[in-house]
Write a structure and sequence with these properties.
By secondary structure, this protein is of the alpha+beta class. It has a single domain, classed as 3-Layer(aba) Sandwich (Glutaredoxin). It has six helices and eight strands. The protein has an eight-stranded mixed sheet with strand order 1-8-7-4-5-6-2-3. It is globular. The N and C termini lie far apart (84 Å).
């Protein structure tokens, strides 16, 4: 009786093991992790890991001119050919204050590549923004959205909000709220975007 029970148990375990092996063998891999998946699926994975909403198809291109702290007009189109990190913020927003030093680390890592970073201060006085940048030792470009025109164009309702624009000035991703921009995942994302499509020869 015991022998028959033992044989039955072994047979049952063999059947279960075989079923699991078949399931693993036949189960398709996640598109983002499949070796055959192209650049698009790799981009999907990077955006997902950073909690960034991917915009497909890309929206735009967008262009607008805003003044910097030296009263010079800077246009988004000035950065055509680069991956553009476009952040909307205010000096009184605590999440923005926490995020800015992390943005500086990302900028410092990639500033010599096909990458640009713009921080758009929403309806703030230039002197207040300038003092903030000096206090936090920030070196990327800051622009002043004095009349809220850029905020309206991009539909910003929460700060901080960050948009990622491709080399043509089209939005390919958006992040509402702060992110760990100095993390390995962030560096990997922007390295991928920079390397994904070489700059045009023009």
């Amino acid at each position: 009786m015991k022998k028959r029970y033992y044989i039955a148990s072994i047979s049952f375990l063999v059947v279960i093991a075989a079923a699991i092996a078949i399931y693993i063998h036949e189960k398709p891999e996640s598109p983002a992790l499949t070796k055959e998946s192209g650049k698009t699926n790799k981009t999907d994975r990077f955006f997902l890991e950073m909690g960034i909403t991917q915009v497909v198809p890309a929206a735009g291109p967008f262009d607008i001119g805003l003044q910097d702290l030296n009263s010079r007009t800077v246009k988004l189109s000035d950065f055509k050919g680069k991956i553009l990190f476009l952040n909307f913020w205010t000096t009184w927003c605590q999440a923005c204050r926490d995020e800015m030093p992390l943005m500086e680390k990302l900028y410092d890592e990639l500033k010599n590549r096909d990458f640009a970073m713009l921080a758009v201060a929403l309806q703030e006085q230039a002197s207040v923004v300038e003092n903030f940048f000096k206090e936090f030792k920030l070196s990327f470009t800051v622009l002043l959205d004095s009349d809220g025109k850029a905020k309206s164009l991009f539909g910003v309702g929460t700060i901080p909000t960050t948009f990622i624009l491709d080399r043509e000035g089209r939005i390919i991703g958006s992040a509402v709220g702060p992110r760990e921009w100095d993390s390995k995942k962030s560096f990997a994302l922007f390295e991928h975007l920079i390397n994904e499509e070489p700059a045009s020869a023009s």
